[in-house]
């Protein structure tokens, strides 16, 4: 508001200066040199006022810009403050120990899954394969209970089986 008032004052002074210059010319034509000189002194004083007014307007505009920038800075600081509070609350919810525990569990689970993947992919080490072969031999030894071999000699001729006559074909039996 003050800037606008100073601008209006400047306009009035500018208009007054033009009038006084024209009046000073008229007075010189009329031969009134002393009055023209007094009027020109007044005009010079008003020009100085006009320059001072311009400086004040410049200062006011700079101040307005500083205020606007300070308001922007305040908004940024407020945003940083809110963000900092939010981070602080998030840190309270999840502690470093909790994060370390979760990371440890995740790493354990990844390692376990890697071992399963290696087993399924058949990429066993020699030690693993040796252990598996030993376990397989142990299991086969446990299950290797063979029936006893008869002590009597086997007959040399196998008795002949007579074919059954008039026996129906399997397709006919299933169809009926």
Write a concise synopsis of the structure shown.
The chain is mainly alpha-helical and 176 residues long. The chain is built from 5 helices and no strands.
Structural overview:
This protein has 176 residues and is an all-alpha fold. The chain has one domain (1-124). Helix content is 80%, strand content 0%. The protein has five helices and no strands. The longest helix is centred in the middle third of the chain and has 61 residues, at 33-93. It is rod-shaped, with a radius of gyration of 57 Å. The termini are far apart.
Topology:
Layout: H1 2-30, H2 33-93, H3 96-121, H4 126-143, H5 170-175
Helix pairs in contact: 1-2
InterPro entries: Snf7_fam
GO biological process, one term: protein transport
Coiled coil: 43-70
Uncertain stretches: 172-176
Order of helices and strands: HHHHH
Structural class: mainly alpha
Q: Percent range for helical residues?
A: over 70%
Give the CA-CA distance, first to last residue: 114 Å
Keywords: Coiled coil, Endosome, Membrane, Protein transport, Transport
Family: Belongs to the SNF7 family.
Main location: membrane
Organism: Dryoscopus gambensis
Which labels suit this protein?
176 residues; mainly alpha; 80% helix
């Amino acid at each position: 508001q003050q800037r606008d008032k100073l601008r209006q004052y400047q306009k009035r002074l500018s208009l007054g200066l033009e009038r006084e210059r024209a009046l000073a010319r008229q007075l010189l034509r009329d031969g009134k040199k002393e009055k023209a000189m007094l009027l020109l002194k007044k005009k010079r004083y008003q020009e100085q006022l006009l320059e001072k007014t311009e400086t004040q307007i410049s200062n006011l505009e700079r101040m307005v810009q500083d205020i606007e920038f300070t308001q922007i800075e305040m908004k940024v600081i407020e945003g940083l403050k809110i963000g900092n509070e939010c981070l602080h609350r998030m840190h309270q919810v999840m502690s470093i120990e909790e994060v370390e525990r979760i990371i440890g569990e995740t790493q354990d689970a990844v390692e376990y899954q890697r071992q399963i993947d290696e087993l399924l992919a058949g990429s066993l080490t020699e030690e693993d394969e040796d252990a598996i072969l030993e376990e397989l031999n142990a299991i086969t030894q446990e299950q290797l209970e063979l029936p006893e071999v008869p002590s009597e000699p086997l007959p040399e001729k196998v008795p002949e089986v007579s074919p059954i006559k008039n026996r129906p074909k399997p397709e006919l039996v299933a169809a009926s």
